[in-house]
Design goal:
single chain; 331 residues; mainly alpha; 82% helix; 0% strand; elongated
Amino acid sequence: MREGMFIKRNVDKWNQYQHEKTSDPDETAERFITLVDDLSYAKTFYPQSKVTRWINGIAAGIYLNLYKNKKEKYSRVITFWKYELPFLFKRYHKIFLFTFLMFTAFVFIGVFSSMKDETFVRGVLGNEYVDMTEQNIANGDPFGVYKDEDPFRMFVRIAINNTRIAFVMALGGILLGVVTLYLMWSNGLMLGCFQYMFFAKGLGMQSVMVIWIHGTLEILALILSSAAGFIIAGSILFPGTYSRLISFKRGVKDALKIMIVLVPVFILASFLENYVTHLMSNTYDKASNEGLPLWTSASILALSLSFIVWYFVIYPIILHRRIAKNSTLTN
């Protein structure tokens, strides 16, 4: 788009934002996000233009109003979670989809390879783990692995370990995504082999109702961590109109914002694994009289999946369309 047409389409909106103040926090946040979008476009195509500096000045004024006013000390947190993060997610939806499809392909490779070669599962998961699982199944306690240790110690250990792996997957993008891709490959294969092991024993649905209580959040968070790694890799390989250093800094910043969301997700997944999955495993333990009803597992699965899909996919799309509609109306 030519600069003149860009200005003509948006000048009335910018004048309104500059001269007509609003006390509505939602409207203020939407104005800020719209201006950031316009500023990004202007910096890309008209970096030396006066209009770029003008937009930057208007956005800076709103920024100061949102973030520097100590009387509104909580507005920054609300705006960050309600607007900034979803808007960021929308920008990277294609990478999210690419990462999800790739990870799914790795899982299916694990399943297919296990079906064709019985030794493949042992090669991926290890003889000790497979033997232990088969012994638990023979003893009538197929998911006994989830109650071998003190729940609190396991909660802390698993939360730290999963968070560590997630950050390695994300920061692996610095090496052009090679580390990220390798960890996706290995985790995808392990998940495929792990699930096949139970389905092959006729315990497929039972494993879903137990393992995916925590696995829904855990696996989807790992996929999003991998997407963060590819965002960093993309910022290095495809800097666009930015210098490679500036593009890299932007990619790292965006990736770390995504990881901020995922840390509490991993903590919640670990809590579910060690306190809810632990109880749900008793449902299928023939020697136990304790357990949870199946609707408990189904509800947690549905809520976990709904949260991830809503916050990372649906809500960002709704927010983006709302902002685009408002921008059109003000032109």
